[in-house]
Amino acid sequence: NAGVTQTPKFQVLKTGQSMTLQCAQDMNHNSMYWYRQDPGMGLRLIYYSASEGTTDKGEVPNGYNVSRLNKREFSLRLESAAPSQTSVYFCASQPLAGSTDTQYFGPGTRLTVL
Amino acid sequence: LAKTTQPISMDSYEGQEVNITCSHNNIATNDYITWYQQFPSQGPRFIIQGYKTKVTNEVASLFIPADRKSSTLSLPRVSLSDTAVYYCLVGDRRYGNKLVFGAGTILRVKS
């Protein structure tokens, strides 16, 4: 099993450009999450999907949209990138939503917006 | 409001036992306490989880007092490879009981 995979690993955008970050998991997990991590900071929750067909806002959703394409895939879209969105983005999956289940993280996508 | 409070950083030497304490005064009855570890340029990795008293696995021990308002992660005989950021989390009801990461504790292990 590959676990949680993310593409791309690195990306440089110009202000105003759009892009989609892809995330897939092969563990048959119900819940998936998108976090961002700024230098020297902890992770902040952007959006999450408790189950296929549902999405909800997290702590910092402004400037982002998400799509839970199917049970395996959860994408994050930046419609008009801004320098403030320069960060490392992590996707995670969890068997069931709730604090008793471990979250499994992908390797991250490093995004720079110029 | 911060859900958990941890020291910003700690230093230790190889072979020592390291204890990182986390404060969670507003923990809810159904919340579990979970610790994650993050190495540079990697996603966080689950270490240990508990509800009360003591939990031990092959990596660490977790001590939780009866009032559950704090917890202590204990790493026995650390090595250089244990240098990482350690996060203490409890379920956050603001987001449907999802985990919320704080800034974590930077542990530096020296030789």
In short:
The complex is a heterodimer of chains A (114) and B (111). Chain A is built from no helices and 11 strands.
Instruction: Please give the number of β-strands of chain A.
Output: 11
Mean pLDDT level of chain B: 90
Seen as an oligomer or otherwise, the chain set is: heterodimer
Helix tally of chain B?
0
As residue ranges, the low-confidence spans of chain A are none
Shape of chain B: globular
**Portion in strands of chain A:** over 45%
- SSE order of chain B: EEEEEEEEEE
Measured between the Cα atoms of the first and last residue of chain B, the distance is 37 Å
Helix content percent band of chain B: under 10%
User: Main β-sheet of chain B: number of strands, strand sense, barrel status?
Assistant: 6 strands, mixed
- Mean pLDDT of chain A, rounded to whole units? 92
Which terms summarize this structure?
heterodimer; A: 114 residues; mainly beta; 7-stranded mixed sheet; 48% strand; globular; B: 111 residues; 6-stranded mixed sheet; 4-stranded antiparallel sheet; 0% helix
Task: Write structural notes for this entry.
The complex is a heterodimer of chains A (114) and B (111). Chain A has 114 residues and is mainly β. Chain A has strands at 4-7, 10-13, 19-25, 31-37, 43-49, 56-57, 65-68, 74-78, 87-94, 104-105, 109-113. In chain A, a hairpin with a 5-residue loop joins strand 7 and strand 8. The mean pLDDT of chain A is 92. In chain B, strand 5 and strand 6 form a beta hairpin. The termini of chain B are far apart. Chain B is mainly β. Chain B is built from no helices and 10 strands. Chain B has strands at 9-13, 18-23, 33-38, 45-50, 53-56, 61-64, 70-75, 84-92, 98-99, 105-110.
